[in-house]
Amino acid sequence: MNVKSFSPLIIRTAIILAVLLVFSAFVWQGYSSGGAPDPEQAGENRLAATLDIGILVFREGLECVLVLSAITGGMVAAQTAQRRSIFIGAGVGFIATLVTWFIAVGILKGLAENISALNLQAGTGLLAIVVLLIVMNWFFHKMYWSGWISIHHRKKKALMSEADTSQISKTSLLWGMGLLGFSSLYREGFEVVLFLQDYNLKMGGDVVLGGALIGLFLTGIVAVLTFMAHKRLPYRKMLICTGILLGVVLLVMVGEQAQEMQLAAWIPTTKIGFLAKIIPDWAGLWFSIFPTVETLVAQFLAAVLVVGSYFLSKALNRSEMEGREGLDN
Question: Bridge-partner residues for 292, per DSSP?
């Protein structure tokens, strides 16, 4: 067996072992802690929250790498300064994301003085779910890639064209490239900052930092392979895999949010007696599946929205292809 055929076997084995390890951790943690199936009791799982944050940060980081890769793709050695400006702009975008984080935390601390903890957590939880629904909406995602990346492409070409015709100076060109890099990263960073506020309120900064470091570490590996090793990674498969994981995170967050709204008395709590005997404790701890009408209906509606947007996107793609074929004929 040669090295090329041996490497995929190692990767598949590692993935299978990782899945088994995570599933075992799910069951053991839920069994040992007794879970939190009662919506009248707030349950926390710091490890689950860390994994959720890591997945979201990695997903947003992966999209940022793809946008930067699309912008810098095709740049020759003579355009090294322009390429460097793009990455410097992305670095400034990362710093701006950190500044935005501290501003958001300060605002919420000020609100906490006038709003009860349960109401504030319920509000930030709704904000996090809106961000995640946008990230998971396939129709929006289609517009994101066709619009956001094409805008960056057009802007880059316009800047380079103006530089070739001496309409702008070299300094203006470098500033423009830097702004492209800045917007590519800061957009993703801003979404992450909004998403993480709920976790920061409920579990503290150490959990957020741990999950963010995991996501940044994985993003860093992809970035090094993309920009330094010049490897063509299976980005589509990676996006699909992270999308599936984020789908699970969405259902968990919706269940938690419905529970918090019940605790804050925003919505009623209608228990389902026979489900309380069927749903295991670890399902409540890890997946926020509780035997109440409100939490289960909320999770069902979230799943319908994500799946429905997927089929809507597929139908639109199919109609566009048929329209193009009709024009060709």
Answer: 271
Three-class secondary structure assignment of 215-240: HHHHHHHHHHHHHHCCCCCCHHHHHH
Residue carrying the six token digits 């598949």: 12
- Rounded to whole angstroms, the Cα distance separating 261 from 126 reads 10
**pLDDT for residue 327:** 60
27 φψ region: left (φ > 0), alpha (ψ -120 to 50), beta (else): alpha
Better-predicted residue by pLDDT, 107 or 161: 107
Structure tokens at 134: 């946008």
Q: What is the pLDDT of residue 95?
A: 96
Q: Is the pTM of this model over 0.85?
A: no
What pLDDT does residue 60 have?
A: 87
- Distance between CA atoms of 46 and 203, rounded to whole angstroms? 7
Helical segments of the chain, H only: 3-33, 46-72, 80-112, 117-136, 138-143, 150-164, 170-203, 205-223, 235-263, 273-278, 281-287, 293-328
DSSP at 269: -
Q: How far apart are CA 266 and CA 185, in angstroms?
A: 36
Contact 42, 121 (CB under 8 A): no
Task: Return the higher-pLDDT residue of 39 and 153.
Answer: 153
CA distances to 81, 99, 260 from 299, in Å = 49, 33, 14
For 30, list phi and psi in degrees, rounded to 5: -65, -40
Predicted pLDDT of residue 228: 82
How many CA atoms lie within 13 Å of 206's alpha carbon, on the beta-carbon side? Answer: 2
Higher pLDDT: 6 or 154? It is: 154
183-207 pLDDT, tens digit each = 889 988 998 998 899 889 888 889 9
d(CA 39, CA 75): 55
Handedness of CA 45, 287, 239, 192 (dihedral sign): negative
Alpha carbon of 77 to those of 80, 81, 230, 269, 277: distances in Å? 5, 9, 14, 63, 66
Phi first, then psi: give them for residue 292, nearest 5 degrees. -130, 150
